[in-house]
Amino acid sequence: MFASLAVLVTLVATLAQANPTPTLKDPYVRRDAEAPPFVKRAASCTFPSPPKTSSLSKAMNITGTFDGGNVRFDRGSGACEGQKEGGDADAVFLLQSGATLQNVVIGANQAEGVHCLGPCNLYNVWFEDVCEDAITIKQTSGQSNIIGGGAKNADDKVVQHNGAGTVKIDSYCVQTFGKLYRSCGNCKTQYKRTVLISQIIGKSGSSLAGINSNYNDTATIDKASLSLSSVSSICDTYKGNSNGDEPTKLTSNTSNS
Ligand SMILES: *[C@@H]1O[C@H](CO)[C@@H](O)[C@H](O)[C@H]1NC(C)=O
Ligand SMILES: *[C@@H]1O[C@H](CO)[C@@H](O)[C@H](O)[C@H]1NC(C)=O
Ligand SMILES: *[C@@H]1O[C@H](CO)[C@@H](O)[C@H](O)[C@H]1NC(C)=O
């Protein structure tokens, strides 16, 4: 059973044979594992410390591009209620299809961070203290890009992929976390999902990616570009379901290529 599931999953640990092996000191090399956009940006764990906070009374709805100029945004004191699952209205930013959110800091007083209703871009978006989750991806197809920025203190997930298509996470800092990325384990509608992960600085976490092998998910992880300490696993596989049950874990920190 495990062997046949392993065949279904293509967990590619790309070591970029064709190109010189890049390191974090030289992060600007295009690697075969990467998909566009190729943004020249090194991962950094220097979180901005904005002097100003803007407390929003409702989620900011974004079409096109919103540049926050590194102001801190939140939803006011008491907004985070732990792992209580919220909806779009509980987000700080609600991104419509094709929207870009850049240079913002999201503070502790919020519940749902960023929700993307279609393919979106997050460039240099920093989460000072993740509540339920940081980024929820609901696109039905296409690719969302999370490039630059970082997240701290995610009891559970940073990126929750509930929709379909691809999520790219590149040049990202994650500290004290459960999972950097999770393909939804028990959503009502399940899809084959794809994640591309590169140039991550990760500290104190349980895993970078959790994918459902029974739905043919793939995680392509540029292992040579990772800088990890106290992270238990690069990728875990699960048997997902569509009835809301807790999914079963199948493998931990095991690559099949
Ligand atoms: C957000 O903006 C889009 C585009 O203008 C609109 O269709 C949608 O209803 C808005 N959503 C909310 C929650 O305001
Ligand atoms: C996964 O792949 C198998 C074998 O190719 C196929 O039968 C199945 O429909 C796929 N499932 C999804 C969710 O893509
Ligand atoms: C996870 O696997 C990687 C190699 O793919 C290895 O370097 C690392 O030590 C493993 N982590 C643990 C906690 O076993």
UniProtKB/TrEMBL annotation:
It catalyses: Eliminative cleavage of (1->4)-alpha-D-galacturonan to give oligosaccharides with 4-deoxy-alpha-D-galact-4-enuronosyl groups at their non-reducing ends. Coiled coil: none annotated. The keyword Phosphoprotein does not apply. Its EC number is 4.2.2.2. One of its GO terms (biological process) is pectin catabolic process. It holds the Pfam family Pectate_lyase. Keywords: Calcium, Lyase, Secreted, Signal. It is found in: Secreted. It comes from the Eukaryota. Its cofactor is Ca(2+). InterPro entries: Pectate_lyase_PlyH/PlyE-like, Pectin_lyas_fold, Pectin_lyase_fold/virulence. One of its GO terms (cellular component) is extracellular region. Residues 1-18 form the signal peptide. It is an enzyme of class 4 (lyase). GO terms for molecular function: pectate lyase activity. Pectinolytic enzyme consist of four classes of enzymes: pectin lyase, polygalacturonase, pectin methylesterase and rhamnogalacturonase. Among pectinolytic enzymes, pectin lyase is the most important in depolymerization of pectin, since it cleaves internal glycosidic bonds of highly methylated pectins. Favors pectate, the anion, over pectin, the methyl ester. Belongs to the polysaccharide lyase 3 family. PANTHER family: PECTATE LYASE F-RELATED (PTHR33407:SF9). This is Pectate lyase. It comes from Exidia glandulosa HHB12029.
